[in-house]
Amino acid sequence: MSRIPIRLRVTLAFALASAVVLAALGWFVYARFDSELSEQIDQSLRTHGDDIASLVASGDLARNTSLLGREESFAQVLTPDGRIYASTPQLGSDPQITPAEAARASQSSFIVTRDTVRSISGQARLLARPADGPDGRLVVVAAASLDDRNDSLANLGTILLIGIPVALLLASMAGYVVSGRALRPVDVMRRRAAEISAAEPEARLPLPEADDEIRRLGETLNRMLGRLEAAIERERAFVDDASHELRTPLAMHKTELELALRYAKTPEEMRAAISSAIVEVDRLSQLAEDLLVLARSAEGKLALDLRRVGVAGLLGDLHERFSARIAATGRSLVVEPANGLTVEADRLRLEQALGNLVENALEHGGGEITLRASEGGGQVAIHVEDQGAGFAPEFIDRAFERFSRGDPSRGGDGTGLGLAIVDAIAQAHRGSAHAANRESAGADVWIALPER
User: Fold this and answer.
1) What is the 3-class SS of 116-177, one letter each residue?
2) Tell me: the pLDDT tens digits for 217-272?
């Protein structure tokens, strides 16, 4: 069933529902018509029976039995034991009910259907009822032919047997046409979607005028195309920036090797050239590692070894790692107490992110660098603050974008990936990264991780 096209499935469902409705309607009409005709015949028999009972009661029946008959209706008057008392000539001298039925009819009336009745072709309907006369209790039997009723029902049945399939066919054709028109916007969107490629990411699907489910589907798909366009633009920018960043160290690396090959004449000169080349290789390796972290983060595949990590110990390790370098620049690194705060995180990745923040403050900031942690709103925030010039206001909103660089006052030789990696690691931990300028002076960059 799932392989059948939607248009045909809708048509089949519509046809099935129509068939059930038409069949039920046909059955109802036929049964109602049958009931109405039968009720009319029974009412005519009761009226005829009442008339004969009146004749019996007045004593006129014995003088004129011709009053028993009517068109298409005949009658007999029997004694309670089933013997003929009076009869229309058409029914002859044979009682139309048995003695047992006559005894029953002498007590209460009933109506039955007979397949054969004398002088009546086909089925007949019989009424038997009691009647009191001068000679005592008698039984009136009135009979009416069912030929007209049966013919009418047969004609109605023929009309229904022909009309219902025709109506079903017309309804199915209408359903097929209507479903086709309803699904036409989907086909238009499908053809347009088949034409969209990466060469034209700005293209969108046409939307139907009606505000219905199909239009909402198209709007959802267009929003998805918008996200894909933004992602493609980001990836293009990423590739362009990565190519640019890789070109410089590769060119310098090649130059160092060429100089060493052509001009190095002493072992000291060769070692200096090789040392310079190694520095460029380290820079390339770090850039490749940073790009790999960002790529895995974008794919949701950044592996994490989550464990309970004490924030105080983490900040202490960062102080031990960076204090000598920072002191060499004439600045200081201060760690505020973390008050026993803990987070569930990958310690190496979290230390990498915080290390990037310290490196950023060391290279681009000024004055004292402070490491502190706080909790609130179900999160633990780890801050790295400096007392430098701070971020340019227009740069704060894009500080965590790849290859973004701030104001030249905070410029340097970095790749512009440090804060992007911080953001990627924070998001991998279901947290977030933030940046702001302090009211006094300097920048405040922090990672907010959910409390576990």
Assistant:
1) CECCECCCEEEEEEEEEECCEEEEEEEEEECHHHHHHHHHHHHHHHHHHHHHHHHHHHHHHH
2) 888 888 888 888 887 777 776 666 666 666 666 776 677 777 777 776 777 777 77
**H or E, element range at 46:** helix 6-58
Of 338, 25, 364, 344, the closest CA to residue 171 belongs to 25
Give the domain range for residue 342: 307-450
27 and 93 fall within a common domain: yes
Residues with Cβ within 8 Å of 422's Cβ and at least 6 positions away in sequence, in order, are 353, 356, 357, 400, 433, 445, 447
Residue 164 near residue 20, CB atoms below 8 Å: no
The Cα 269–Cα 260 span in angstroms is: 8
For the domain that residue 272 is a member of, what is the CATH number?
Answer: 1.10.287.130
Q: What is the DSSP letter of 70?
A: B
Among 125-129, 241-245, 380-384, 438-442, the minimum mean pLDDT is found in 241-245
Amino acid (1-letter code) at residue 165: P
| 33 and 139 assigned to the same domain | yes
For 323-365, the pLDDT digits (tens) are 888 988 889 999 998 888 889 888 888 988 898 899 889 888 8
Q: Indicate if 247 and 342 belong to the same structural domain.
A: no
Distance CA 18, CA 4 (A): 20
Is 325 in the same domain as 416? yes
* Strands 379-385 and 342-345, bridge-based pairing: unpaired
The answer to whether the CB of 131 falls within 8 A of the CB of 56 is yes
If DSSP codes are grouped into helix, strand and coil, which group holds residue 356?
helix
Query: Going edge to edge, which strands form the sheet with 379-385?
Result: 333-335, 369-376, 379-385, 443-450, 432-437
Nearby residues of 293 by Cβ (< 8 Å), 6 or more positions away: 302, 421, 424, 425
For residues 43-62, one letter each, b for 16 or more C-beta atoms within 10 angstroms of the residue's C-beta and e for the rest, the string is: ebbeebbebbbebbeeeebe
Task: Give the count of domains, the chain.
Answer: 3
pLDDT-derived band at 66 (thresholds 50, 70, 90) equals: low
d(CA 24, CA 437): 77
Mind listing the pLDDT tens digit for each residue in 97-113? 889 999 999 999 999 98
Roughly how many angstroms between the first and final C-alpha of the chain, as a whole number?
A: 48
pLDDT, mean of residues 118-127 = 80
Here the tokens at position 122 are 């086909």
Sign, CA dihedral 380-419-390-370, equals positive
440 by Cβ neighbours in 10 Å (0-12 / 13-18 / 19+) ranks as exposed
